[in-house]
Amino acid sequence: MVNKRLLVKNLLAHNDENSFYDKKRFLSLGEREGKAKFLKHVCALSNSNPANNSFIVVGVEDEDNKIVGVDFFDDSKIQNLVNAYLDNAPLISYENIPFPHLPEGKVVGLVTIRSTGKICALRKNIWKYYGGAVFFREGSISMPKAYDIELKSSNVDAVATIEQHAKNNIELTLDGVIDFINHRHPDMVSEYKVFKEQFVVCWAGVQKKVKGDIYFSRVDIELINEQVKLFYSALDEVTISYDEHSFRTMEYVQLGLGKKQRYYPLEKVVIKFQENGTYQIQSELVFEPPQYDKKTLHHIFNANNALLGKLQKNIPLKPTEEQDLKHLPDTYLICYLNGFEEAKEQLDSARLLLKERDRTIYLTLKEALRILRKVKYN
After folding, report:
1. Which of 109, 160, 142 is nearest to 42 (CA)?
2. pLDDT digits over 334-358, tens only?
3. Apex CA 377: angle with CA 376 and CA 378, to 5°?
């Protein structure tokens, strides 16, 4: 079983960017250019490594390999993105790896790419890349090549050695459990569960009971053996259940207009552990967004746009407008879910304005964009 934090350290310590490994300060999957560049690198790494894993490490400074981290990224639909744009798409996963020195909520992203053994190519045009384009790695650069070029395996031994050096052990697992419960979440309810005598799942959160049901907020869930953060949210409510074979979560989001707020089920995730030392993560989007009168939403949408206009021009807001600003991310989200396509663009444009103005509203905006991403790629 590979300890992913050790794997990241080994990749950073012993390798410059090469034909099986790339590093990025961040990914911009919400923008067309960023999405296109990500797909290009996935295509190139897949074609350059038909018989072994290849990797992209996210949250690292390019010049000095300093680990600065990125926001927790929910990867549950990233395979759908790759499948939509690539022929012979590789199997891909995005894992969130916690590092002790990073602030709460910050992680290192690890993208693992496993080729199908066939030539991977862009299926359709995106940004400045044309459908049918094929990419390979030349050193640290992803370059276009002829489609009929032969796939060659040249990194199998190197990658096998790196993964072998990142194997987990009992000491690392015990240290991980103790650190999670005693040091990182001493003020929360923390628990752990061992599955199949091999896998240790730890979770923590602020617990509350509603009509006999237990909900958690500020939830953090980790698979300790692999040092992978499975879930993190500062805002949403989560229910947790498990048996001897599986661990299950149901995530809820709070939405509504004004004071009429309620919780809506968003996504169900089941982790099934096998006797042979493997596991599978299955996610199902169960979200049914609330529907509202279009005339009411037109009024709210226009009012939100006016608020953004004032922020962009540094015009002071009235007290009532300050209150409306607190609900702006959620109301834009509701507008988008009710057919107002422009609301997504407005949320993106509000990101920098709200980040500088109000940290709490900015966090709400990031949660709104996360929900949109889940819905989009479902």
Report:
1. 142
2. 999 999 999 999 998 898 889 888 9
3. 100
Q: Which letter does DSSP use for residue 66 in this model? A: -
Question: Token digits for 283?
Answer: 């996610």
Question: Residue type at 106?
Answer: K
> Is residue 55 a contact partner of residue 111, using CB atoms and an 8 Å limit?
yes
State the maximum Cα–Cα separation within the chain, in Å, rounded to a whole number.
66
How many other CB atoms sit within 10 Å of the CB of residue 144? 15
Q: H/E element holding 206?
A: strand 199-210
Q: At what angle do helices 294-312 and 342-357 cross, to 10 degrees?
A: 40
Question: What's the token pair of residue 97?
Answer: 């790896």
Would you say residue 210 has pLDDT above 90? no
Amino acid at 172: L
Give 263-315 pLDDT, tens digit per residue. Answer: 899 999 999 999 988 899 999 999 999 999 999 999 999 999 999 999 999 99
CB half-sphere exposure, 358, CA atoms < 13 A: 13
Q: How far is residue 98's CA from residue 73's CA, in Å, rounded to a whole number?
A: 12
Q: Are 31 and 127 in contact (CB under 8 A)?
A: no
The answer to whether the pTM exceeds 0.90 is no
Name the DSSP letter for residue 338: T
What the block records as the tokens of 42 is 């996935």
The candidate with the shortest Cα–Cα distance to 253, out of 368, 376, 344, is 368
Distance of CA 249 to the CA centre of its chain: 16
Angle at CA 344, nearest 5°, toward 23 and 355? 65
